Amino acid sequence: MKPKRKFLSILFTLGLLLSSCGGNRTSDDSQKVIDDSEHQSITTESSSHKEENPSSQGDENPPSVVDEDEAARYEAGLNSAPWKDNHLYIHFNMRNANDYSKWHVWAWQKYPADNDGKKYDWENEIPDLAGKYISIDLNDPAYVGAERIGFLIVLTSSVGVSGRHWTSDSGGDVMVNLNEAPTRPNGTIHLFANQGSSLTPSFTFSDKELPHNPFEDPDNDTLESVNNIDSSAPSKYPLAPTSPAFKDEAGIGYQIQVSSFADSDGNGFGDIRGITAKLDYLKSLNVDVLWLTPVQLSGSYHGYDTIDYLKIDPRYGTMEDYENLIAEASTRDIKIVMDLVLNHTDLNHDWFKKSASATTEVVDGKTINYRNYYHWRYSKADLPEPWYRYATTNYHYYAKFATSMPELNYDNQETRDAIVDVAKFWLAKGVAGFRIDAVKHIYMKDESTYKPTDILTEDIDPKTNVDYSSNVTKNVHFFREFNARIKEDYPNAFLVGENFDGWDERIKPYYQGMDSQLDFAGYYHFVNNTIYPAAGNQGETNAQGMSATKLPAKYDMYNSERGGRAINSAFTSNHDVERMLNHVQNNRTGAGAFIEEHHTHISASNAASANLKARLYAAATLLQPGLGFIYYGDELGMSGNIVTNTASNAPSEAIGTDFHKDRWYRQPMKWSSDPNDASITRYSFQGYEVMWDEYNAQTLQGVKEQSLDSGSMLEYFKAITSLKGNYPLFTRGNLVPISLSGNNHVMSYKIVDGSKYGEVYINFGAGHAAINASGNTLLSFNGASKTSLPGHSILVTSSE
Question: What is the residue range of 683's domain?
Answer without folding.
Answer: 246-345+409-706
